[in-house]
Write a sequence for this structure.
C-alpha cells in the first residue's frame, strides 16, 4: 500500500517529469523507494504527469522482481534491465536518453535527499538548464559519516587541481535537467559514480545555465563501499575526463560553433 505524502507548495504551473533511478543490488531498499516516490508524485499538485524509470543492472537478487511487481500495478513505473553491467553512470545515461518528458531528474534509491526538495527545484527549472543539489552551501542540512567527509575533501582537492569547475558539490545524487541538456549524456563516457563530474564539466564548457541549490541530505547507513577502491577510481576517472577534453574526444568545437548564442550564467 502506497503511503500518502502531503504536498503544500503550489507553483504557477504544472510540470511533466521523468524520474530516473539507477539500481544495483537494492532489494532491501527498493520497495521503500518505490512507495515513497509514487506517493510523492501522485499527490503533488505541481506535477501533471510523471514517469519513474528504473534502470537496473541484473545481479540475480530480488530488485528486478520487486520493480516488476509494482510495474504491473502502476503505469507510471518503467523498467529497463541492462544487458551488461553499466554501473551507476551508464544506467543514468540510458535512463536519461529514454525519458519522454521535457523535465528529467535522477536521484538515488536510498532517498538520502528527501523528495520534498523536488518542489524547490521546480521553482528554478524554467530559468536554468541544470539544477544541482549541494551539500556544501549555506542552508544545506547534512548528516554524513566522518570518514566520508574526509573522502569528500580529498575529491574536492583533486577537482580543484585538474578542473576549474564552478560547481562545489558535483557528486550529490539529486539533479534536474531540461531536455536541451541531453546532448551532455550523449557525450558521456564515464560509467562509474563519477559521471556527475563529467556531465557538469561538459555543461560549463558548453555554456549551459547551471544552479546549485542547498538541500537536506542524510547519509544512508546501508551504503556499502570499498573506500580504497573509490579513491583509485576517482583518480582514474578524473584523469580520463581531462584526457578526453584535451584530446578532443568530446568534439565540443563543433557544438560551440553551432551554439554561439549561448552564454553561461
Amino acid at each position: 500500500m502506497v503511503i500518502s505524502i502531503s504536498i503544500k507548495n503550489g507553483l504557477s504551473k504544472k510540470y511533466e517529469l521523468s524520474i530516473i533511478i539507477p539500481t544495483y543490488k537494492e532489494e532491501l531498499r527498493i520497495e521503500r523507494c518505490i512507495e515513497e516516490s509514487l506517493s510523492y508524485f501522485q499527490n503533488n499538485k505541481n506535477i501533471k504527469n510523471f514517469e519513474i524509470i528504473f534502470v537496473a543492472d541484473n545481479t540475480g537478487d530480488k530488485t528486478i522482481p520487486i520493480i516488476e511487481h509494482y510495474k504491473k500495478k502502476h503505469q507510471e513505473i518503467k523498467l529497463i534491465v541492462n544487458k551488461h553491467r553499466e554501473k551507476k553512470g551508464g544506467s543514468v545515461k540510458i535512463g536519461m536518453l529514454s525519458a519522454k518528458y521535457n523535465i528529467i531528474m535522477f536521484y538515488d534509491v536510498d532517498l538520502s535527499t528527501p523528495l520534498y526538495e523536488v518542489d524547490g527545484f521546480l521553482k528554478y527549472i524554467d530559468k536554468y538548464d541544470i539544477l544541482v543539489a549541494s551539500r556544501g552551501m549555506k542552508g544545506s542540512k547534512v548528516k554524513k559519516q566522518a570518514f566520508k567527509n574526509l573522502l569528500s575533501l580529498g575529491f574536492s582537492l583533486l577537482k580543484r587541481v585538474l578542473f576549474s569547475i564552478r560547481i562545489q558539490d558535483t557528486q550529490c545524487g539529486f539533479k534536474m535537467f531540461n531536455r536541451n541538456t541531453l546532448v551532455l549524456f550523449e557525450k558521456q563516457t564515464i560509467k562509474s559514480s563519477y559521471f556527475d563530474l563529467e556531465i557538469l564539466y561538459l555543461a560549463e564548457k558548453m555554456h549551459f545555465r547551471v544552479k546549485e541549490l542547498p538541500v537536506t541530505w542524510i547519509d544512508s547507513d546501508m551504503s556499502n563501499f570499498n573506500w580504497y577502491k573509490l579513491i583509485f577510481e576517482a583518480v582514474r576517472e578524473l584523469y580520463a575526463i581531462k584526457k578526453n577534453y584535451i584530446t578532443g574526444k568530446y568534439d565540443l568545437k563543433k557544438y560551440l560553433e553551432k551554439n554561439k548564442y549561448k552564454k553561461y550564467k
